[in-house]
Each structure stands twice: as C-alpha cells, then as structure tokens.
Write a structure and sequence with these properties.
This protein is of the alpha+beta class. It is built from 19 helices and 18 strands. The strands form 6 sheets. It has a 7-stranded mixed β-sheet with strand order 5-6-7-8-9-10-11.
C-alpha cells in the first residue's frame, strides 16, 4: 500500500493469518512437537557435575571425615560430647559427602527453553489462533445472521465462501487443540524436578553453545534443536531517536492500514475515484457514487477528512486508544479526553479486538465499537471503531462509518432547491408554479415550499407533469413580451428551465437503490414536504427519512429488512453484525418492532418509555459509563 495507486490499495490484502499455512503448525512448532518428549526426559533425568560437599554432621552420620575435621574439633568445644584422658569424644564433625550439582549450562538451557522461550511463544500463537478462530466463527454465523449482502461483503473481503470457511475453521480448531496441548505440557515441565532445582536460572546467552553433552546425548541434542528453531534476536539497546523512529514507522503503518480499509469501504459502497491516485497532503481525491460526489483529504498527521454535500467528517487513526489490559475506568478517562478534544464529527479508527470492547459497560462500549450516533448522553460528535487485521468484521464497521459520513449528508441535502444560477426563484413565479395541477392519485407532491421565497423539487416529474410545466413556461414566456409582472422577470423566466433541469438531475440520484442499485420510478417516492420514502421493488430495501418526535429533526435511514432480524443479537455493535454498512441511523435496540430509528440529532428513541422498549439495553442502563 505504499504505492500511489488507488486500485493497488483497494486490492491489497488487509487480513492476516487466514491463509492455509497460518492455520497449521509452522516449522518450529513441528520441531517442538517432535522433540518435547526429550525435553520432558531431560527435566527428570538430567546430567550433573559430581563434587564434594563439606558440612558439619553428627558423628553417627560421618562416613568420610574432612581434612580439617580434627582442627575444627580442637577449636570448637561445643562439638564435644565428653572428655577423656585420651582426648575429647566428638559429638559433631566435618564430613565429606558426594554432591551432584545440576547447575550446568546444558540444564539451564533446557529450563530457559521451557520458560520463558517456549511458553511465551506458544502462548502468543494460541492467542492469535483464538482470534482467528473467533473471526472464522463470525463468518460461519454470517450464514444465518444478518442480511445476505452483509454476508456477501464479508466473504468477498475474506476471499472465500461458506464451504471454505467451514474447512478453515476445522483446520484452525485442530491446530489450536494441538498447540494448547503443547502449552499444557510446557506448564507441567515448569514444575519438574529440574525446574524446582534451578528455579528459573538462565544461560545469559541468545545463541546455543555446542557442548559435548548437547552433541552426544540425544535428549539434550533434541532440546538444542528446539532452541535453534526458536532462536531469538539479540536485545538491542535503543537510543531515544531510534525508539522515536520505530514508533513513527508503527503509526505510519497503521495509518496506511486505516486508509486501505476506507478505500475498500468506498468500493463496497459503489464509489469510485476520478483518477487512480490515493489522497496525500494537498492532493485530495474526488469520488463519485450513486448519491453524488464525495471528497477525501489527507492531512500531514494522517487524519483523513471525508466531505459530502457540505458536511465534513474526520477519520483519525489512533493505534493505542484501548490497551489489552486497560480497565473500564482507564478506558473511560482516555475516551473522555478524546471527547474533550473533538470539535466536529470525528471517527477514531483504533487497533483493538471487538470482543473485549463488548465486555465493557454498555454506555462505554457503544461509542467505542460503532460509528453510529447512538450515545444517549448526547456525545455524538466523537465515535470510534475497532479494526484489526485478524477480524474480517473490521470492514463492515468502517464501511458503515463511511456510509454515515457520505450517504447521510446526501439524504439530508434533500430536496434540492430550484434556483436560477444560485439566486432564488421570484415569489410570483413560485406562486404560478404551485398552481400546477394536483399530482396524480397515489403520488406525492412535486414541490416543497418551506418559505414563500424557496422552492424545492421533491421528485422527478412524470410525462404529464412535464407537459403541464412546459405549457406553463410557454404561457409565462409569452406574457413576458407584454406589460406586466412577467416582463419584469423575463430573464429569470428564461433561466427557469435550466434551474428545473439541475434540480431534477439532483433529485434523480435519490431514486437509485442503495441495496441493489436498481432505479425506482417517480411514482414510488412517498411522503411529503422535506421527507421522502422509497421501497425498492427488486430487493425490498427502503430508504429516505423518518421524523423525530422529540426534536422534529429528519432521521436519514436505509432499511434493508422491514422486520427485525436475529433479535437474539443485542448490545453495542449489533447493528453492524446484522446490517453491516446498510444502515445509517440505528434501529431501536429493543428489537421488538420494526421501522423505529434512533434520532441522529438528539439521540431519542421513539420506543423509549414504551412497553415495546422496556427491555432495551440502550435506554435502560445505568446513567454513567461504568455503572457507578
């Protein structure tokens, strides 16, 4: 992804660990599996160095007196049992005994190999494989969970189908079982006889020293093979400049990864760039989709800004927002500092697994796991989405955030104004246009007039309405040649047809189904005033607006399914798990009724306080993040 090509970034591999080789034991793990029995043998039957141990013992236990036994006895009367004329009778004496010393390099090598070398390596591999298994489990659940388009997106991103997911899941399960078995054996070896004797003593070396014992004893030789397979790089001392450079490269790599996810999300939403370059500081990229254009800019600090229909949303890659060992209090304090620094709509893209975030208190988890503006406390300018190369579902979270940043402003720009080269249509002319015949039975109004000097086009005109408009414009143009108010605005009358053409071109974009891409007809546009609703006759997707009963704001919606799907899926992030990127405003979390949406302006849910929403995990949780 270091190239300047948009297509190269779009097609780059953004997932790690899902190839067949990563789901099997690697070369060094096979070496460990084949030789762990020899390591266990050494831990119980090990070589020792024979030496002499001189210690003070009762006379009855002395088999071989030490050379200095008489000298000590003469000097220490407390070791006498009695005195006689011939001399003292000893009670204790220095004795020499044979000592088997296990503190040898070869034994230290084995103990250091068991822990920390092997235990840490196997533990890290097990954790990684568990993440992969969890991701494959998400893909398996996608067969029966959520919409079919969400499933198709995940399988495309992963690069396989349901059958291959099952095969990979079985392979990962077998490998994980084998690695967990190796890990359990290593933990047992930490308590072996040799382990208790040496108590974690180390060799102090990074490379294996070839001794006669290692060369000639097959069990020590096997341990040496494992040591070589798990050979570690020497620890290098970093000066402050080197550490700063390493961290800078780490953050730049994450910036590129976040950009790759955004590029892939635009592709899934049907947006394509005008050229084939990626954004860079001072060089934005314009994209065109079914509902208009969007612009993506990149700043020097890696921040990406998406602008659509006059609304800008920042995407900030922040790799260390949530640590794996952070407690809820720490996470909340850090998130509050982010909220305090945000002055406009911002989505923080952070490196994290999604499962630990779901275990946080719901009020804290909600803004950290989804870009939806669902925060009941009113903090809707800052949201966050977790991403990881080990989670296929990262794309659906990013894609929904991009859809919210690009498609929601498009819906809120509806209906387009009829203007004359940027100037309003004269009021007298608007009044004549409003005199057009009423819409055909079953059709919504053509115009929306919020003020006496504003005219907006709600939908494209059908043939009979276009005929009426042409007749009206010809009549007004003819009247403009004679004295009267029409003559005073003759220039505006001439430009009116162009203004209608521009407005009709803009409103036509909203006829494109965001689900399947098919075009709706003007007859399908429902509602009135500044609201519309269209249901696709091909895939059943509904899109348009709802009106918030609390603040009267418009709520932009895309509704892939009319009835609630998988009501058992609950909690923060459930919308992405069901609808993926096909949702703008979030449906009611209670999952009991359909077509109820949380207001993106005030955060009010229409079912809050009602019997249908009494079990909602969003509206009926403790008032603070951590439940205090």
């Amino acid at each position: 992804m270091s190239t300047g090509s948009w297509s190269a970034v779009r097609d780059a591999q953004l997932l790690a660990g899902l190839d067949d080789e990563s789901l099997q034991l690697d070369r060094r793990e096979i070496v460990l599996r084949d030789n762990i029995s020899s390591i266990a043998q050494v831990c119980e039957r090990f070589v020792t160095r024979l030496g002499e141990l001189v210690e003070l013992r009762p006379v009855a236990q002395v088999k071989r007196p030490a050379r200095k036994a008489l000298a000590r006895l003469a000097a220490h009367t407390e070791d006498w049992a009695a005195r006689t004329l011939s001399g003292p009778i000893p009670r204790r004496a220095l004795a020499v005994s044979r000592d088997e010393d296990a503190d040898l390099y070869e034994n230290r090598m084995v103990i250091e190999l068991v822990h920390p070398i092997l235990t840490s390596a196997i533990s890290a591999r097990v954790q990684r494989l568990r993440r992969i298994r969890a991701d494959l489990a998400d893909l398996e659940r996608a067969r029966d969970e959520g919409t079919h388009r969400r499933r198709d997106l995940l399988y495309r991103f992963w690069g396989g189908d349901a059958a291959r997911v099952g095969e990979s899941s079985d392979r990962a399960e077998r490998t994980l079982e084998e690695l967990e078995g190796l890990g359990a054996r290593l933990q047992n070896l930490r308590g072996s006889t040799l382990g208790r004797l040496l108590r974690g003593r180390r060799t102090g070396l990074r490379t294996l020293r070839r001794t006669n014992v290692i060369a000639n004893d097959r069990h020590y030789r096997a341990a040496g093979l494992v040591w070589s397979a798990f050979d570690r790089k020497p620890d290098l001392q970093e000066d402050p400049e080197e550490r700063s450079e390493r961290l800078r490269r780490r953050h730049l790599a994450f910036d590129r990864y976040a950009l790759g996810l955004l590029v892939r999300a635009f592709a899934e939403l049907g947006y394509s760039p005008d050229g084939d370059t990626i954004p860079s500081p001072g060089h934005p990229v314009t994209l065109t989709g079914a509902w208009g254009t969007a612009t993506i800019r990149k700043d020097d600090d890696g921040t990406l800004t998406l602008e659509s229909h006059g609304t800008a949303t920042r995407f900030v890659p922040l790799i260390d927002l949530v640590g794996p060992d952070d407690d809820p209090t720490t996470v909340e304090a850090r998130w509050q500092s982010v909220i305090g620094a945000v002055a406009k709509p911002t989505v923080v893209v952070h490196l994290s697994a999604s499962e630990p975030l779901r275990a946080l208190p719901p009020r804290l988890a909600a803004p950290l796991i989804s870009a939806a503006k669902d925060d009941i406390a009113g903090r809707r300018d800052a949201t966050a989405i977790p991403v990881s190369p080990l989670e296929t579902t990262s794309l659906e979270r990013v894609a929904r955030a991009v859809a919210t940043a690009v498609m929601a402003p498009a819906l809120l720009s509806y209906p387009p104004a009829v203007s004359l080269d940027g100037r309003p249509v004269p009021r007298r002319l608007i009044e004549r246009l409003m005199d057009l015949g009423p819409p055909r039975l079953g059709m919504s109004p053509i115009f929306h007039r919020p003020t006496p000097d504003e005219l907006h086009l709600r939908r494209p005109m059908i043939a009979s309405e276009s005929t009426q408009l042409d007749t009206l414009l010809r009549d007004i143009s003819r009247r403009a040649k004679a004295p009267g108010w029409e003559r005073d605005i003759a220039d505006e009358i001439l430009r009116l047809r162009s203004g209608f053409a521009n407005a009709e071109s803009a409103v036509n974009t909203f006829l494109t189904c965001p689900g399947c891409g098919n075009e709706a007809s003007p007859e399908q546009v429902g509602r009135e005033k500044d609201l519309f609703s269209i249901t696709c006759r091909s895939c059943g997707t509904r899109w348009g607006h709802e009106r918030c009963g609390a603040c009267q704001a418009r709520v932009p919606i895309i509704e892939p399914e009319r009835e609630p799907l998988n009501p058992e899926v609950r909690g923060p992030g459930w919308v992405e798990r069901i609808f993926g990127h096909e949702a703008l405003a979030s449906p009611c979390w209670a999952r009991t009724v359909g077509a109820r949406y949380i207001c993106t302006s005030c955060g009010k849910c229409p079912e809050s306080g009602s019997e249908a929403g009494v079990n909602c995990t969003r509206c009926y949780t403790a008032p603070s993040y951590c439940g205090t």
